[in-house]
Input
Amino acid sequence: MNLQQLRSVSETVRRGFSLTKVAAVLHTSQPGISRQIRELEDELNVEIFERAGKRLTKLTEPGAAVLPIIERILLDVQNLRRAAQDFTGRDLGHLTIAATHAQARYALPAAVLDFRALYPQVTLNLHQGSPRQVAQMLIEGEADIGIATEALSQYGELIALPCYRWTHCVIAPVGHALLDGAPLQLERLARYPILTYEPGFTGRARIDEAFARAGLKPQIVISAMDADVIKTYVELGLGVGIVSTLAYDEVRDRGLRALDAGHLFEVNMTRLAIRRGTLLRTYVLSFIETFAPSLTPSVVKDALASDVALETVS
Amino acid sequence: MNLQQLRSVSETVRRGFSLTKVAAVLHTSQPGISRQIRELEDELNVEIFERAGKRLTKLTEPGAAVLPIIERILLDVQNLRRAAQDFTGRDLGHLTIAATHAQARYALPAAVLDFRALYPQVTLNLHQGSPRQVAQMLIEGEADIGIATEALSQYGELIALPCYRWTHCVIAPVGHALLDGAPLQLERLARYPILTYEPGFTGRARIDEAFARAGLKPQIVISAMDADVIKTYVELGLGVGIVSTLAYDEVRDRGLRALDAGHLFEVNMTRLAIRRGTLLRTYVLSFIETFAPSLTPSVVKDALASDVALETVS
DNA sequence: TATCCTTACGGAATTCGTAAGCATG
DNA sequence: CATGCTTACGAATTCCGTAAGGATA
Output
């Protein structure tokens, strides 16, 4: 048994059972991959893949049993490298953050600046995507840290830690009727065309819930993935916007006014997620603490240590 | 990086930093081991071992950080093999049980018989030792299951599951004054020379505690590792014995009489332990359930899954 | 001086890629 | 018939054991 065999199996599952693709990804020849897999199967004396003729189609039952163990070994090989790197250069390396637009645009900049000052030698990489894409990147090992308000708690492969709470606000162009000083109510809000986030983004679920609970059917004329797009069209007079309070800036958004809507929609929790079982380098722990001071290294380590599931034979 | 390198490092720590011994254990040459270690250190770019001149003396700080990860990888390689074996021959393999004398002699026989009938093709291996030796065998991976009343809960590397409760009894030769029918009391018991287990064996701690709490200093004339020895000398008239109730058999021990002492000494709990992080084959789970019906496969798996600690960089 | 690890070297085994073969959609 | 996996073969590399070197108790 050797690690290359394990990598071949793992990558074959990831790449949808195409050995040709696996060979490309692992920078080797396709017969090589074929042989690696066959040799591992021979040694373990089980077929890992089901074959339709000569093509691999899916995992066998034994294959499904051994795959999680293989994945864990490969993850630990990474962890081994990381642990060592933390000694060769504690402040040297890469940090890939996956975040939604809302986080990347409004919540992260301060932390990124501080972090760059602390660890100037760490190459920062910021990826933007939907909450599900953020989760996917973490699971695939393509990102070290994921930050989003939605979805992250729903994956068993991830550990999601609470960072901060925030509420929505309603934005309208200067001079809009809603800005007459009267208290903001859901019924009144629902009378205007509304611009807000797409489903699955930045607390949209809480907005829908609130309207549904009140028996209201708001007319959502534009839904976008980010507040900047929403603000643009609100400013053009297409309606009123519902966005995260974080996205409104008095100075920058001179043409708009904001009304707090914390009493209308449920509070949102932004979470930071990491892949279960990954070892975090010192600077990663440091970034996390910079972003959310309550998430000290020891808090994060405890969360990691508390529940790494181990598979047993069915 | 390859698995042989990891094995070399792991074994070097186990064998007290003697590469010569490691080479013998791994059936290879000593320069080979030296090279494996050096190559891993080169690749990780950290020194794993401290060297006094040319001899390895101990782990470096990075070495201590990477060692647990290396151990986990090697354990998972074993787990991988086991998972596969469970498919090639579900009822074929080896089962090594480490147990104390008390367990091997009185508690295990019934379970062993049942198990042999269920899995005639599994080679059973029963090792006997002190509770600490039992624990050591589990930690070293030399035994799959450990059973003892003492010590097993004290090791972070092990998971100890409760099997059954038992109490002590007092044994005396037929015709002994203690057998006059009067209720058994600690004070009266302490007047006779006592034969019981050695410290660290079969509930001896609970016996000492009881006497100490009562302010009594019993005269222990013989302490032994097992009840058979104790019974022999009690029968010869050297004093009264305090042994596990399980060790007394009315029919077999005709020269002796037993008085229940459940009210004098605290109840004992016999535990079954397994090494954290090990995958248990189907027949191992089956044996455990045979021995302690409350420990069903799902109970054991849950216990295994609940708390596998993951190290993070300090 | 004996023990133990490292370095050097040469042979053997392994590994890997190319090319051909063959089955499937 | 094109795609994709397997088999076959030869070359290159890697690996490993023996032998010599050097440091320490």
Notes: Residues 90-165+269-306 of chain A form a domain with the D-Maltodextrin-Binding Protein; domain 2 fold (CATH 3.40.190.10). The longest helix of chain A spans residues 61-88.
